[in-house]
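User: quick one
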Amino acid sequence: MDTMVGNLKMDIPLGIILALLTVVAVWFLLEKTKLGYELKAVGYSRSAAKYAGIKVGRSMVLSMTISGALAGLAGVTYYLGYVGSIQPKVLISTGFDAIAVSLLGNNNPFGIVFSTMLITLISKGSTYMKSAAGVDAEIASVITGMILLFHACNAYIKWKMERDRREKTNKTKEDK
Amino acid sequence: MDIVIIDGLSFALPLFIMAIGGIYCEKSGVTMLAVEGLQGFGALSVHFVAVAIAGNFAGDSPAPFYIAMVMAAVGGSLFALIHAMLCLKFKANQVISGVVVNILAMALTAYLTKLFNRVVFGATSDKFVLTVSSRITIPGISTFRYWERYLPICILLNW
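Assistant: Done. Structure below.
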C-alpha cells in the first residue's frame, strides 16, 4: 500500500473513508433531518422540548444508541485496521480523549476532522520530537492539555472581544 | 478472611476518600470529573515533599510522612483551583473543564515526575519509589473477638 501523496509514500488506512463518511452522515443527521432537530432541541432545553411535543426519553435513548454505534465503528477501525488483534481487558484510552477532541472541534462534525488531526499529530509526533529535538515525550500531552484548557474558556474570550468591540463603536459614536 | 478484609480495607480507602470528595462536589452542584487527575497530582506533591524534607528528620521518624500527607491535600486542592477558575471566572462548562483538568493533571504528573527524577536524582526514570507506611495496630479493636471486629463495618455498611 504505497500511495503517493505529493512526494511522500505513505500508508493511508481505509478507515479514513469510513471516518469521512461518518462525518457527513452525522452532519446530515443533525442538520437536515427532523430527528437531528429533536436531538438538538432536547440538548438545549429538556423542558422546552417536552412542551413543544418532542418525546424526550425517546430522543435521549436514540442519541445514546447513535453514540454507541459510532463508538463501535471506531473500535472496528482501530482493532481490525490498525492493530489486527484484540486483547480483552486491554483497551485504548481514546474514550476520554474523544470528549475533549469533540469539544475542541466546537461540537461540529466537520470541526472534529481538524481537531482530531491536531491532537493526534501532537501525541504521535512526540516520539519523533524526542529523538529529533531531545524534548521529553511527556511534554506533548502537557501541550494537548494546555490547548484544551484555553479552548475551555472560549466563551469568555468571545464575550470579552464582543464587549471590547461594542465599547469601541460606542466611543466612535460619542466622538462624532 | 482476615487478610481479605484488611487488604480490602487498605485498597478501598483511596476510593472511599475520593468518593467523599465527589459527594462534596455533587452536593454543592459542581460536576467534578477530574478526581482521578487530582489524585495523581496529590500523590506527586507527596513525593516532592517527602523527598525534600526526609533528610531533615531521623531515619524512623514518622513526621515527614504526616507532613507529606497534609501537603498532598494542599497540592490536590491547589490543582482543583484551576477547575474553579475555569468554571467561575472563564464561564467554562463544568464537564469540559473537568475533562480538561483531568488530562492536564495526568500529563503534568508524568512530566514533572520525569523532570524531578532527572534534576534531583540524575536518573531517567518515570517512577518514584517510596517505602510503604508501616501498619499500625489500633488498641481496643485488635483485642476483639473475630465477629466483633467486623461489627462496626457491618453497621456502617447497613447505615
